[in-house]
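Hi L., both proteins are below.
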Amino acid sequence: MAVEKTWNVVDLLKTTTDFFEEKGIDEARLSAELLLGHVLKMRRLDLYLNHEQPVSGKELEAFRECCRQRLQGRPVQYIAGEAFFYGNRFMVDERVLIPRPETELVLEHALERFGVALPGIEIPSILDIGTGSGCIAITMARMLPSAKVTAVDVSEGALQVAQENARALGVAEKIRFVQADMFDASFPDAVGGPFDLVISNPPYIPETEWAGLQEEVRRYEPKLALVAPGGFECYDAIVNHARRLLRTGGLLCFELHADAAEGVRSLVEPFFGSIEVMQDYARLDRALSCVKS
């Protein structure tokens, strides 16, 4: 009877990376690291600090199942059930978008401008529209301990994920979760206010771009959270709500489609001042913020 090879961490990582590369998996090494780290309950750094550690038969089978799912195109974050945003672990599944590093830059931009536009507010009031996994609202609640945060989403499933993340990260009592549709006339009454900051990473991918997205995005991530028919419908709705929901001097901040800055600027210019556009590390327009006159 053949005896199955005993694997250690470093050999398993190298073999899996090579296999993923051969099969055309994006970010093959990172995928292997994240999946093995998930199975072994280790950070990526710990995998290399413990590179000679043997992998048990049970762990190997769990890792192989993760790899099978990755080969089918399922994103690593959904396989592992987690993604990291601003250094914190967020539970994610197909009910919510996977948090992106670019959104961290949007959050930083909002916080920087908020501190300048509205200095000295003891209890800031923040509204996160389209909260998804809750990554923006929860991070805001953790970084601004005195803040009152309202997180709204049209999806009941997304709100369930966000609430679980808020509990896990110790801010459930600081955030009010609301299910509401931004295209419904009752939206302002549902969310309350007034607010000092309205922030949103809304659906902004035009329907015409959907077919060109990565297959794993189209197959697994919720289209509801990604696509607006023409790309600007959600921006337009939120601008109109923010005119009523924001205090005078309050800040509105959006994450942008890379080609949307001028279009969003035209929506806010009649009602808001001090418009700023922030670029990401790839020099793409990533966030737009403005102040209610």
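That was the first. Here is the second:
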Amino acid sequence: MLAHLPNAISFARIVLVLPTAWLLWSGSYVQALVLMSIAGASDAVDGWLARRLNSVSELGAALDPVADKLLVAAMFIIFTIQGHLPLWLALIVLGRDLIIFGGAVIYRLLFGDIELNPTVISKANTAVQIAALLLLLLSLCQFGMISDLAAELVEPYCFVLLALLGIGSGIDYVFTWGARSVRRARG
């Protein structure tokens, strides 16, 4: 029973996307921050539990990044519509993920099984996306000096870093998986 707990936690993170998105859309930023904090803590807990209980699974390996990507995508879309994020940045972030997803589907169709191992730059990209979104959310919560400091970090620093990491990690994935495809086609 405990072996399924990490997957259940990852699934719960996916379920949290909808209420978090609704809170963001309605401008309830403090409540959205609470749900984001729960999602972030559960992300750490499910991975730790999976390793601790020796219950790392393919399902868990798939659910974890899906939960992260759904929440990040929802936040980017809502914050862009609300005018808190520039459209060009949302296009880079979401476009990168769509290209990677499309490439993975094509690879799967051509070669069968696909083992998704995120690269170091991809992990950094995801971490910076989440940190930047949390800072942006903090800046909208009207917590006085903390929100002011968060706002100063978000624009331009986080925007530039997100763009560079998004482009760099996208290029890294294209070259990494392109080379893997060539090797697999030859062998």
